[in-house]
Structures are given as C-alpha cells and as structure tokens.
Structure to design on (296 residues):
C-alpha cells in the first residue's frame, strides 16, 4: 500500500456518501478521497461543507463528476483518478450512489443500483491495489427482506455463490419483462414486489460474484442502517412523523460498516454485513446487535 490511501466514493455529494467521505478524512490523515458526484457543482458544495466542518480537509478531496448510469462519465472519472494517482493504486471503492423506488421504475432502479456499481467496478478494477484493495457495495436490509419473500427458485438464485454476471443479467431481463407485462413490478408477485429490494438483493448477489472472480481484493456489501437522508426523509414526512421517532439516525451514524469494510479486517469476501459491521445472511433480516451470521 502506498503512503497515501486513495478512495473513491460514488454519490458522495450528500447523505451517507458525504458522511463516509467526512469520516474517512477525519479518522485517517493518510486518505485522499475522490468525491464522486453526478453534478460537479453539487460535489464542490459538498467539499466546501466538509471543509467547514473539518478545516483543511478540502486539500484531500478531489471532486470527480460521476454519473453511474453513464458509461462515458464513469470512464472519464476513472481516467481522472488514474491521472492523479499516477503509478500508485486506488485502495478503495465505495459504491454508495443509489436511488429508491418511489419516483423511479424498475429499469431506472436496476440501472443505478445494480448496473451502476458494475460499471464503476469494471472501470476501476484495473486501478485497484491487488495486495490489499477493497470494494464496498452499499446495499440495504431491503435486499434480504426481498429474498425472504421469494419463492425457492428465486431465493436459490439470489443466494447462489456460483452465480455469474450473465445469469444476473438474464434475471434482470426476466423481471423487467414480467414488470412490463404486469404493468409494474409490484404486480409480478416476485419477492415482496419492491424494485428497490430486488436491486439490493441483486447487488448482494453481484458482490458474491465479484469477490469470487477477484480473490486478491476484499469485496463486501453492507447496509448503512436506517439513516435520515434525502432518500428516507419523505417517508417520515408522509407519515407526519419526526425522522428520529421512526428510528432514523443521522448520516454520521451510517458509516460504521463501510469504515470497517474499508479499513478493518473482515474475515471474508463476498459477504453482506449489517450496520453493526457484523455479517448478516442474504435471505433474512438480522437486527444490529443480534448474533452475527456464521454462514450455516
Ligand atoms: N438512508 C437509508 O436509510 C439507507 C438504508 C439502506 C441503504 N441505503 C443506501 O445508502 C446509499 C446512500 O443513500 P442515502 O440514504 O445517502 O441517499 P441520498 O441522500 O438520496 O443520496 C444518494 C446519492 O446517490 C446519488 N445518485 C443517485 N443517482 C445517481 C447516479 N445516477 N449517479 C451518481 N450518483 C447518483 C445522489 O446524487 P444526487 O444528489 O445528484 O441525486 C446522492 O449523492 C444508497 O445506495 C442507499 O440505497 C440508505
């Protein structure tokens, strides 16, 4: 590992991504963070805000325009990173960018939450440190909750550690076709009918696939927990409740698992972790503080 630890975080202009950048800069003085933002100006604003809270941090932040649904943008971001790091390696990649399913259809949700991390991984894999590099895919408990509601065939597929990307592609195509026929994904009866849950279940499946194919990297997925952000705040507003009353925590408390998977010593690769940084199963919910999943 070089003296400077280079890490890319996608969707880092707000919410959990921004908090993850701040945590990395605050807890380690050897980090240089590429703050991915699909809108460069929003990325600059986030950098300034982090600098206000952590004076001097801006000199260790480089904003990179990065829309995870846009091949060219992803490629350009990887080239920018390559230029900055020169002969050194990218230590970490945090695939944090994501969208919910309230205002987006299945196609969009899969494009951002599943194909997005895949695009960024493909572009960044050649840059990653092959002795100790890390990829962290920010998933959600909605994934295991979705799998839990699946019929056996789908559950077996989504938890298959021999899965291939081609099979993941086919599964997404089948779900899209079924949703087109039924009018929406909810009416297909697959899993719990949530596009977001399907996307995060597939992100966990993809994480297994990626880890199996890159055994020289440590690649895991995690949920950040139930965190008050632009994604979840509307949920509280709809219910007329305070986010805290619903159990949402501030973004600063949504980085524990990501920080552990980046800088700690996870025992495995291709696993999914809860917000308490302990391993969780892919097919059912494990609450933070409950005994870790042992793989049985
Ligand atoms: N909040 C929770 O309770 C919770 C729970 C479980 C998992 N998660 C996961 O945590 C991650 C972060 O979510 P959050 O709660 O912090 O939500 P958020 O505040 O809505 O932030 C989402 C981030 O993703 C970015 N993004 C969306 N589409 C993008 C695209 N096409 N390309 C690049 N960036 C894109 C957004 O950029 P713009 O500002 O440009 O829109 C924003 O920076 C997501 O993967 C989410 O699924 C959150």
């Amino acid at each position: 590992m070089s003296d400077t630890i280079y890490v890319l975080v996608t969707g880092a202009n707000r919410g959990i991504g921004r908090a993850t950048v701040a945590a990395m800069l605050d807890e380690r003085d050897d980090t240089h963070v590429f703050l991915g933002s699909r809108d460069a100006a929003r990325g600059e604003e986030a950098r300034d805000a982090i600098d206000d809270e952590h004076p001097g941090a801006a000199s260790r932040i480089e904003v990179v325009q990065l829309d995870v649904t846009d091949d060219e943008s992803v490629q350009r971001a990887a080239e920018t990173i390559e230029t900055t790091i020169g002969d050194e390696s990218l230590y970490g990649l945090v695939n944090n960018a994501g969208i919910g399913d309230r205002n987006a259809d299945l196609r969009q949700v899969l494009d951002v939450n599943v194909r997005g991390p895949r695009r960024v991984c493909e572009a960044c894999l050649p840059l990653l440190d092959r002795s100790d590099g890390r990829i962290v895919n920010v998933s959600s408990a909605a994934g295991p909750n979705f799998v839990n509601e699946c019929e056996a065939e789908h559950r077996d597929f989504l938890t298959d550690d021999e899965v291939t990307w081609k099979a993941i592609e086919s599964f997404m195509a089948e779900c899209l076709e079924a949703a087109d026929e039924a009018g929406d994904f909810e009416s297909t009866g697959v899993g719990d009918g949530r596009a977001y849950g399907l996307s995060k279940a597939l992100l966990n499946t993809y994480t297994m696939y990626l880890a199996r194919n890159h055994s020289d990297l440590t690649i895991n997925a995690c949920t950040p927990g139930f965190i008050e952000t632009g994604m979840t705040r509307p949920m509280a507003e709809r219910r007329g409740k305070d986010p805290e009353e619903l159990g949402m925590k501030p973004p600063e408390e949504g980085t524990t698992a990501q920080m552990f998977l980046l800088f700690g010593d996870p025992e495995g690769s291709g696993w999914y972790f809860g917000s308490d940084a302990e391993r969780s199963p892919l097919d059912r919910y494990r609450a933070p503080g409950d005994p870790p999943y042992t793989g049985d």
The chain has one domain: 5-280. The chain has a mean pLDDT of 97.
